[in-house]
Amino acid sequence: MYRRFSFERCCSLLLGLLALxxxxxxxxxxxxxxxxxxxxxAQFVQWPDTSFTSPGAPLCVxxxxxxxxxxxxxxxxxxxxxxxxxxxxxxxxxxxxxxxCQLVFVSKSEGKRVAEILARMDSLPVMTVSEVSGFxxxxxxxxxxxxxxxxxxxxxxxxxxxxxxKINSQLLGLGKIVESPPVNK
Length: 185
Fold this sequence. Notes:
The protein is built from 6 helices and 10 strands, in the order ααββαβββαβββαβαβ. It is an alpha/beta fold. It has an 8-stranded mixed beta sheet. It has a two-stranded antiparallel sheet with strand order 1-9. Helix 1 (7-19) runs antiparallel to helix 2. It starts with 6 loop residues before the first helix and ends in an 8-residue tail after the last strand.
């Protein structure tokens, strides 16, 4: 079933989630918030048509490394569709096992491998999201961080463009904009 989300509904949900603190409940509450963010991020991204094997193929959300979400991510995306694509979740320990995913969450457990992971996904139309400090500045698309015990996010629009992704300006207005340092050639 395809549900159309209005910008106002998505913004209300995102702003409401921003107001929730990560320490307001058990650790899983933080990941409930982050799972909802992932769903809403995908609402405001346009992937190239070549990102999908067919017009009805699912939009795959991959989790790379140790999974902090548990069953929360599946609960969040269950029954949801974005741009006529149902959502599916896949978990893996290796980047190559997430081939075909349009959105990849890079777990904290992969913090020491961020540069390698991003290099392997460099030219792929994949929105990369993490909570590893400095992730977006290293070339990731979106990075979660905490500010005054609230879950916030920063966006690297240059990294998105490099991967062929178009992020809606309304989402860009909700996050902190960061850029990767220029690459010396």
